[in-house]
Amino acid sequence: MSDSKRFDNYIGGEWVAGATYSSNINPSDLSDVIGEYAQADVAQVNAAIDAARGAFPAWSTSGIQARSDSLDKVGSEILARREELGTLLAREEGKTLPEAIGEVTRAGNIFKFFAGECLRISGDYIPSVRPGVNVEVTREALGVVGLITPWNFPIAIPAWKIAPALAYGNCVVIKPADLVPGCAWALAEIISRAGFPAGVFNLVMGSGRVVGDVMVKSRKVDGISFTGSVGVGRQIAVDCIARQAKVQLEMGGKNPQVILDDADLKQAVELSVQSAFYSTGQRCTASSRFIVTAGIHDTFVEAMAERMRSIKVGHALKSGIDIGPVVSKAQLDQDMSYVAIAQDEGARLVTGGELVTCDTEGYFLAPTLFADSTAEMRISKEEVFGPVANIVRVADYEAALAMANDTEFGLSAGIATTSLKYANHFKRHSQAGMVMINLPTAGVDYHVPFGGRKGSSYGSREQGRYAQEFYTVVKTSYIGS
């Protein structure tokens, strides 16, 4: 199937034709063109920023009930259309349809959560140390925020950036990943009808080298929230700090999943499969390294191989499929390069490592597991971002904890154990922003903080009430009698 319709940018309350257009291709079926999506030029990005800047004074001081009503309207429409939008997501990104519908549902719930949060913006009224003086501490909108989102969660991550930005009175310019513009466009179309004044929300699609670069360097943009690669994120930090703009970064991960001797084997295998291979391993919270203690190691390797043989790979919209395609040819090439690197380094291929042939031409890769690997191998240190994982044997819990923390990243970490002692110790001593006990490393709630340590994250947390730390600034007012 094919849809040759063109989808434009949304600037200042109007749909604006792109300077050029780019095809959105289904990775499950390369003959399926979802549509032609606008590519903004520098002038259009600047126009969007100017529109946001012009709308900010009135919007940032507007009534919170109107904000809440508009956000709730967006959330309600997303939830009402979850199957339609989930199908679009599965087509353009490659998640299986059940996963895609789940992501859309999460996006709807995020908007509804922040519809409530903008009614709960709080401050403090504090007596001064000086007689006759009182102090008010309040939060105000940051200003114009530039949002740059990745391809792996094409509606959930835009939602968890847009919703709090609008709830706290900011104006938005968003650039979705060039690889998956469809969901962001659909979300923008819903927002365009939800009652927000012109200029409050703007969508500019296109390449990072054009759109992202203008947003990051513009002195009219007060803050940048970015989710994506480590290299790009670090450059954004440099550019934002140079002009003293606020910056929030979510970047890479090499998330450890520790399996102790006392773990429930069936549970450990299932959570490991979920962590490493579902969503085709294309999650920043996915675990691609299993750290397994000696007593359970051999049994775990065998059980994983058996479980992985039952995983069905195929077209994301097909019923009964567990894992869809890799998102693009470039990503597939990267995944396959790490398969070769692991073998060259001496890791043992347990299962997978080959392309899968399906009824349609797409980027299908069998879930891949390596054993007999060491902590020094690249497969143990570098983020693959695909359905490729490796197992490292360690002597005991202490060695497992040390290896789990021996990484430049620190997003998510998991442990499988029936020991309360080890679970509590790992929770306290894991150098990660999120810790999972007997759960997959991937899979988080929308109403609590999201983020990591070290090279994984920079700046304040995303999601939940902690989102206010980025999207607001604190003002202290002194009032004399």
Count the domains: 2
* Alpha-beta content class: alpha/beta
Q: Report the average pLDDT across residues.
A: 97
Shape, per Cα inertia axes: globular
Radius of gyration: 23 Å
CATH superfamily of the largest domain: Aldehyde Dehydrogenase, Chain A, domain 1
Biggest sheet, strands in spatial order?
15-16-17-14-13-19-20
Say what the CATH topology of the largest domain is: Aldehyde Dehydrogenase, Chain A, domain 1
What is the count of DSSP helices, taking H or I runs of 4+ residues?
15
Record field, number of beta strands: 23
Low-confidence stretches: none
Question: What's the arrangement of secondary structure elements?
Answer:
Blueprint (H helix, E strand, L loop, with lengths): L5 E2 L1 E3 L2 E3 L3 E7 L2 E11 L2 H19 L3 H17 L1 H12 L3 H21 L6 E4 L5 E9 L2 E5 L7 H12 L3 E5 L5 H12 L8 E3 L4 H10 L5 E5 L2 H13 L3 E5 L4 E5 L5 H13 L9 E7 H15 L20 H17 L2 E4 L16 E6 L4 H4 L6 E7 L2 H9 L3 E2 L1 E5 L3 H10 L4 E4 L15 E2 L2 E2 L9 H4 E9 L1
Parallel strand pairs: 1-5, 8-9, 8-11, 9-10, 11-12, 13-14, 13-19, 14-17, 16-17, 19-20
Antiparallel strand pairs: 2-3, 4-5, 6-7, 7-23, 12-22, 15-16, 18-21
